[in-house]
Amino acid sequence: MKRSSRLALAGGVFAVSCLTAALQSSFAHATQSIAGPQAQEFSDQDVSDAYIYLLGRLLVLRQQQLDFQQGMQWNQLVHRKPGDVEWPNPNLDVAYSEAWLALDERSCVQISVPKITDRYYTVQFLNGWGETLANINERSQPDHPYGDFAVCLKDANVTLPAGVKRIDLPARTARMLSRVELGADAKQAERLQQQFTLRPTGTPTLPAVPEALMFELSTLPGVEAFDRAEVALQEPDLNPGMQGVQAKVRAIAMQVADPAARAHIDQQVRTRTYPALARSAVTLGPGTVRNGWMRPAVSGAYGSDYLTRTLVDYGGIWANTQQEVHYFRAAVTGTGELLEGGQSYSLTIPADQLPQHFARYFWSITATDAKNFRVLPNPLGRFLLNNQSDLKYNADGSLTLYFGPQQPAGVNQGNWLPTAAGQPFRLVLRYYGAKGAVAAGTYFPPALVKR
Predict the structure, then answer these.
(1) What is the largest CA-CA distance in the chain?
(2) CB 3.0-4.6 Å disulfide test: which of 30, 125, 281, 377 passes with 270?
(3) Which CATH superfamily is domain 75-200 in?
(4) How many Cβ atoms from other residues are within 10 Å of residue 397's Cβ?
(5) CATH number of this structure's domain 324-450
(6) Is the pTM of this model over 0.85?
């Protein structure tokens, strides 16, 4: 797949509209009837549980395949220009570096982290299900927030140089992402980004890249997802209680070898599972909607909630934990109207609820189209508002932000985020280092108002 095609697939952390459209499209093609009555070996719920669980792993495998096709190699760090990454909804307010790590019993990967002060940064490690395994920063490693680290397979027998902090991971392969806040000086952030380095301590055994089921995000697979079950389940799921759903996946994978059963299960996926996924996407599973804003129940580390994990892997792969960042998404106004790029909207935040009151590090709000979740092209080249924007506050200390195709008359340009006519859009509000009511889960932003 060409780079431009992959960029066109970029989505967001909360892929409600895109997922709904994808499922409706797939559902529309599921019109072939199955001749004669069929014995139903698995209930609709069994098939949905198994498919949703498996899909999360297939999405990570798919992204891994795309990364290696693009030229990534095991244990090699790639520094990306801000925004120039190949997965759904990258944060536009950080500079990324990324790698795929291969670990074994005799070697580790040594990572050097520069000293960074007064600027958010983290180095995140995830497994093949999209679960966050660890972060390196001053919060998780207060006694060693920078310098040299050795990321090792748990129980690996490796002698490390003095002064190297060991980080054990319970997986032989992992995805690494470093993030450095762009802040007021993006060039300085990129200079710091370039100081992150990675090298193996020995000669690790490099695994083959698993063969992935490749599909467009706008057209999810049907029963063919179960053809990759054996490969997918080779990656250990570290969350407890997954044995039951894994047994369902394996049982269905065995059943689909029979043509009649395969056709029946495919129909179950397309007519039952797709609509169930679309309904769940509205709230990201057990998430909460208030004032038109959706807050997920979890992100980055999911426990037994594999439904949310799969939805996040679909629309915003590599999401971090709520210890690092809290997300809110709005696709509608407070009265439930879909956000349309040709209309204008305002968001007024009271003085005692200003975003900076709830973020130890920084906050940002981005606008993307509601189908592919790409930033909205505009003459200003402005794709987000944050604490670095030239914001003007109201006389009472409140803050009003504006979203629409034209700058409202009399409004400070720094308070306006352009949208594009003819494109429904959505907003994602991020709080880095959330505190107070945001961290407690009791706060929701005010409703958007159509002007």
Answers:
(1) 72
(2) 30
(3) Domain of unknown function DUF1254 (2.60.40.1610)
(4) 11
(5) 2.60.120.600
(6) yes
